[in-house]
Amino acid sequence: MRHLKLALPLVALTALEPACMSSHAAAEGKTGALPAGQVWLTPSQVADMKIDVAPVGEQIVDDTLLTSGTVNLDDLRSGHVFSPVTGRVIKIVAQLGQRVKKGQPLATIESPDIGSAVSDAHKAEADLIAAEHDLKRKKELFAQKAAAAADVEASEDAERNAKAELERARQKQFLLRVGNVDAVSQTYTLPAPIDGEVLLRNINPGVEVQGQYSGGAGNNCIPGLTSNAVCGELFTIGELDKVWVLGDIYEIDLPRVHMGTRANVSTVAYPGVVFAGTVDWVSGSLDPNTRTAKVRVTLDNPDKKLRPMMYTSVAITVDQKKAMAIPRSAIVHMGEYKVVFVEVAEEGGKVHFQRLPIDVDESLVGAYVAVRHGVSAGQRVVVGGAEALSQQL
Predict the structure, then answer these.
(1) Structural contact between residues 86 and 216, judged by C-beta atoms closer than 8 angstroms
(2) CATH number of 2-61+322-390
(3) Any bridge partners for residue 339, and if so which?
(4) Residues 6+ apart with CB under 8 A from 117
(5) Rounded average pLDDT per 10-residue block, the chain, 393 residues
(6) What is the pLDDT, as a whole number, of residue 71?
(7) What's the predicted TM-score (pTM) here?
């Protein structure tokens, strides 16, 4: 529909041009007026107006897909820290912007979960010992025909349950051993999961946090915690020297986007600055609500100009082809029309330029735009000073 709307005024302008030219040609014979749409200049005027022409021919045209995106951390080079225990923050060790090594302390949390984990393990060990003793006695009685087989089976079941409970308690202890646990003071020290910079901190001393192993789910706080409790991520550790930009593309454009293609990213924070990268992942599924697929561009960010969650514009080069094209600078906008000036002759010491309507798609990004209608190969089109020529009409 957009092409149809564009074609109608072009047809009208093209149809009117010969009629105007013939009427003006007739008028020229009588009054000396120039044909419609033409400008005649002397060589010195051409030089003064800095008119430059170039032949129309095939050029490499980049077909570019434009979309929006957001800056994200590289998932493989970032870590999100949650607390495995519920308790109160008593000390902040790592500060925002600080670089930390893997295993380095981030914060210390005072938690009753430490004592519970230790006591649960001790109780499970005692229960297992008692179950083993009971099973041994039942087996001895059964051998003397003083106990029923059902009693032995019940004791075996109790022993298996005791072993499973001990395994659960020990597993919880193992999960807590990732950090520095002090069973006496009942404190847990959060360790850094990777080397990197502290990019985010959501806690302060005195704040209560919910543990991921304490029955909490997602970001819903458990009952009993104060209103300032933190239920989710406590720290974000990562690197900013390489980031991801995630954009959305419609399913109609999916066949045109391939891994390894070039992409240029720009932001409102740095106008005129282009960050060059490549597409290294295209989602294998669509969002059911927006009918779009995610595309990822990886960018080097040595100056750390790009920050997580920045909005960006992404220009993806989806196809490169040769087509009849003209420089973008040759196009002159006259209201709703697009025209170019073509050098048509040189007579009587003057260079003749003719205005022609043209049909091009300026939505593509690049120095050249493909021509759908208006000029043909070999014609000499004005590529510099076209605006100055239009003012002579």
Answers:
(1) yes
(2) 2.40.420.20
(3) 332, 357
(4) 169, 172, 173, 176
(5) 40 42 40 79 92 91 86 92 90 94 93 77 88 90 88 91 87 66 76 93 91 54 53 90 94 88 93 93 92 94 93 88 87 90 92 93 76 91 92 84
(6) 96
(7) 0.57
What are the backbone dihedrals phi and psi of residue 159, each rounded to the nearest 5 degrees, phi first? -65, -45
What span, in angstroms and rounded, lies between the C-alpha atoms of 44 and 300? 50
Letter for the amino acid at 14?
Answer: T
pLDDT of residue 218: 42
User: Do the domains 80-238 and 65-76+239-320 match in fold?
Assistant: no
User: How many angstroms separate the first and last alpha carbons of the chain?
Assistant: 32
What are the domain boundaries of the chain? 2-61+322-390, 65-76+239-320, 80-238
Q: Which of 88, 116, 82 is nearest to 218 (CA)?
A: 82
| Token output for 311 | 């909005």
Residue 12 CB coordination number (10 Å): 12
**CATH among 1.20.1250.20, 3.40.50.1370, 2.40.30.170, 3.40.50.1240 for 65-76+239-320:** 2.40.30.170
Q: Quickly count helices (H) and strands (E) in the chain.
A: 5, 23
